[in-house]
Amino acid sequence: xxxxxxxxxxxxxxxxxxxxxxxxxxxxxxxxxxxxxxxxxxxxxxxxxxxxxxxxxxxxxxxxxxxxxxxxxxxxxxxxxxxxxxxxxxxxxxxxxxxxxxxxxxxxxxxxxxxxxxxxxxxxxxxxxxxxxxxxxxxxxxxxxxxxxxxxxxxxxxxxxxxxxxxxxxxxxxxxxxxxxxxxxxxxxxxxxxxxxxxxxxxxxxxxxxxxxxxxxxxxxxxxxxxxxxxxxxxxxxxxxxxxxxxxxxxxxxxxxxxxxxxxxxxxxxxxxxxxxxxxxxxxxxxxxxxxxxxxxxxxxxxxxxxxxxxxxxxxxxxxxxxxxxx
Length: 327
Description:
By secondary structure, this protein is α/β, with parallel strands linked by helices. It contains eleven helices and nine strands. It has helices at about 20-35, 55-65, 85-95, 115-120, 130-140, 170-180, 195-205, 225-245, 265-275, 285-295, 310-325; strands at about 5-10, 40, 70-80, 100-105, 160-165, 180-185, 215-225, 280, 300-305. An eight-stranded parallel β-barrel has the order 1-2-3-4-5-6-7-9, surrounded by nine helices. Strand 6 (about 180-185), helix 7 and strand 7 (about 215-225) form a beta-alpha-beta unit. The longest helix is centred in the C-terminal third of the chain and has 19 residues, at about 225-245. It starts with a strand and ends with a helix.
């Protein structure tokens, strides 16, 4: 059995508030901890009314403080939005408060639109500096060298596992060259997954952080007591993708009975391509779907995510997914 983890975006549903989203995220993290999930990761997004995890490191501290054993981390921090020193200080602080429980995943996309990117970092010049920013950040976690002019306090000498996130070959190549674990965003951009995994394993260079390749894949899993109910729950995520492509992201919508009446044939094709790495159904469907995905792609770990409107149904879905792994 490979480890299974959970990706959360602190979803803000229609009729709800960010405060309620945070309460649900903490409740979900405690639920995941009891179910044997290894990690609970939160992702940085901005200017998205339906996603409340913008201040990712702050929310990680809240979740870690309300749990006891599950690893909590960023999946990820969009490094072009931040100065590497500040990220090192934030995660050095988190790791000091919660030793051996904090992960740091790094992405090179801004996680938002261009105007918001400029508002986040007014001197932003693009993501071309991402590799050098990653290396600068890694240096801040090293023990302080004599005469070092700038150090992360806290951060220096603290063990914080760093992952490279990606949805293309770029991240795979960088993770391989630096000898870091790699997480691929197959839950929304699966097109380059197989090629990226092959490149990462082929070109991996051992480092003091990691001796052998370690690849995580993300998978949408929506489970319910019946296949029909799971398919209905999945329409929340399908609607959200269409609304985003229409340029009208909003709060997380409730499920609908007839998704075919909602989207155009072109939108349907786009969503089915983007969400190709999805397992939707009852307990048997989920068990078989997860087993098939693992057998075909051989990840070292799976990161499960589910954009489900009803909190109780979301918890039930992750419980059924955990049972599938344990079976």
